[in-house]
Amino acid sequence: MTDKKTCFIISQIGKPDSEERKWADFVRDNIIKPSMKESGYTEPLRADAPDTELLMTDIIEQMFKADLIVADLTNFNPNVFYELGIRHCATNKPVIHLIKDDQKPPFDLAGNKVIFISRDYEKVVEAISEIQERVKSVEKEPGKFYSQVQVYMQLNELDQLKESHGGLERDIYDSLKLLTRLCQSNANILKELDDFLMLHKRVNVETERPTRPTRPTLTLDNWVKESDT
């Protein structure tokens, strides 16, 4: 039997009975848990889980190892963004970003899809459906989540490939880099770029390229001789 995938929640938690805790519990119990149950994941773990004492090193470990992170950006809690930044840098495993529907996602996350959530019943149902669709999407292409950090890493890899080539191929790399910058919010474009880079890794760009045979200079005399034969 295949083990279920794991999900970790990063969100503001707040003190017991605070408005922050009530919101965090509502999102976990009414939006995230139903979404994960239907998607075949283990019950989502949060830093304050009962009978679990997660130290900061444990939370960081989750940023690296959890199959899925669900990040509630509501109220722009600094701990949430610290942990989210670690996830974006550490791996290209997926993150699903949530935020309360009366708030605006920060500019730095503009390239990532954010699902708007609220306590309204219809919007809760809609959010669950959106999360499940996102899970299906990322599972079709495991390891293909693209944060802005991952985009930078792809651009940097293009630069390295460019340095090992010349002429027209360098122009192609420059064009790919420009296209990536223009379309970095489009996951399909980024997937194509990732596939392109993987192809070059398989070919091994460090292998010496064969030199083309030198064509003899064509003069009027040898052109006449060749045309006579």
What does this molecule look like?
The chain is α/β, with parallel strands linked by helices and 229 residues long. It folds into 2 domains: 134 residues, Rossmann fold (3-Layer(aba) Sandwich); 56 residues, no CATH class. Strands 1-2-3-4 form a 4-stranded parallel beta sheet, with helices on both faces. β2, α3 and β3 form a beta-alpha-beta unit. α2 packs across α3 and α5 runs parallel beside α7. The radius of gyration is 25 Å and the shape is globular. It starts with 6 loop residues before the first strand and ends with a helix. About 3% of the residues have low confidence.
The amount of helix comes to: 40-55%
Strand order of the largest sheet: 1-2-3-4
CATH topology of the largest domain: Rossmann fold
Sequence stretches where pLDDT stays below 50 over 5 or more residues: 205-210
Structurally, how many domains make up the residues?
A: 2
In CATH, the architecture of the largest domain is: 3-Layer(aba) Sandwich
> How would you spell out the order of helices and strands?
EHHEHEEHHHHH
What is the arithmetic mean of pLDDT?
Answer: 78
Write down how many β-strands occur, each being a DSSP E stretch of 2 or more residues: 4
Strand content: 5-15%
| N- to C-terminal distance | 75 Å
Biggest sheet details: 4 strands, parallel
SSE-based structural type: alpha/beta
Rg value: 25 Å
Q: What is the approximate shape?
A: globular
For the record, the CATH class of the largest domain is Alpha Beta
Q: What's the arrangement of secondary structure elements?
A:
Layout (H helix, E strand, L loop, with lengths): L6 E4 L8 H21 L16 H10 L2 E5 L5 H13 L4 E6 L13 E4 L3 H20 L7 H16 L4 H15 L4 H17 L16 H9 L1
Parallel strand pairs: 1-2, 2-3, 3-4
Helix pairs in contact: 1-4, 2-3, 5-6, 5-7
